[in-house]
UniProtKB/TrEMBL annotation:
PANTHER family: METAL TRANSPORT PROTEIN HI_1621-RELATED. The lineage of its organism: Bacteria, Candidatus Uhriibacteriota. It is found in: Cell membrane. This is Cobalamin biosynthesis protein CbiM. Its main location: membrane. GO terms for cellular component: plasma membrane. It comes from Candidatus Uhrbacteria bacterium RIFCSPLOWO2_02_FULL_49_11. It comes from the Bacteria.
Length: 248
């Protein structure tokens, strides 16, 4: 659902870019806390006159933790997978394209904030290097596929998980439902942006987008659950099991 340049007016572009920057900045702050750890550093005091107390002063320095280093490699691997999946797309009426998103998959593997950063980076590279999605429309694409499709999709997963937690396959059903909803809702948001820009009547682009993306969402849901279950069988650390972001 990459929106190219020329399909959004300046007002929608500016508002969506502001929302995207705010969301990415917030995600960076949240993700940074998990990557860094605080370690003591002892520094000698020089040129102290008159001498005062201990000659050594203790300070603190932040560096990437071992867990953070491991997660960087996981983010790189998941980002490569999503990049390849999103490059396979086909045109839809109203100036957009249809393809898999991968936002919920990334969020359930790594966490919602790390997933938003990955999706944003993928969209940036696609826009700059491959012309897939416009530069002026980058903010809208990040809002649709990152903010709505990833953070919103993860929120849907949390909600569904709490509703279906009593059922045997409630966890996987929640992942399936969240992946499908993320695609459909992101498509609806893209339709609204195009309609607000005067590119096409809302019902025309809305019906075209949802007709395709409801089917695409089914494929996304199946792929998401299959990959997650395969990783779970191999005891791969998944954010969906950690509970770290359960209050998201």
């Amino acid at each position: 659902m990459h929106i190219p340049d020329g399909f959004l007016n300046h007002g929608v572009s500016v508002v969506s870019a502001s929302a995207a920057l705010t969301a990415v900045g917030f995600a960076l702050r949240q993700a940074r806390q998990g990557f860094l750890e605080k370690a003591p550093v002892f520094k000698a005091r020089f040129a102290t006159f008159p001498p005062s107390g201990n000659a050594d002063a203790q300070g603190w320095q932040y560096h990437v933790s071992k867990w953070g280093q491991q997660k960087m490699w996981r983010m790189a691997g998941v980002g490569s997978l999503i990049f390849a999946a999103q490059m396979v797309n086909f045109p839809i009426a109203g100036g957009t394209s249809g393809h898999l998103l991968g936002g919920v998959l990334a969020a359930l593997i790594l966490g919602p904030y790390e997933a938003l950063l990955i999706i944003s980076a993928v969209l940036l590279v696609q826009a700059l290097a491959f012309g897939d999605g416009g530069i002026m429309a980058l903010g809208a694409n990040v809002v649709n596929m990152g903010l709505v499709g990833t953070l919103g999709g993860y929120g849907c997963f949390i909600l569904l998980r709490n509703i279906l937690k009593r059922y045997k396959f409630g966890l996987w059903t929640s992942a399936w439902g969240a992946a499908w909803l993320s695609v459909v809702v992101a498509a609806a948001c893209a339709s609204a942006e195009l309609a607000l820009s005067g590119t096409a009547p809302f019902m025309r682009v809305f019906s075209a987008m949802l007709e395709y993306h409801m089917v695409i969402g089914l494929g996304e849901a199946v792929i998401t659950v299959v990959i997650l279950r395969a990783l779970a069988r191999r005891n791969f650390p998944l954010a969906m099991f950690s509970g770290k972001h359960s209050k998201f």
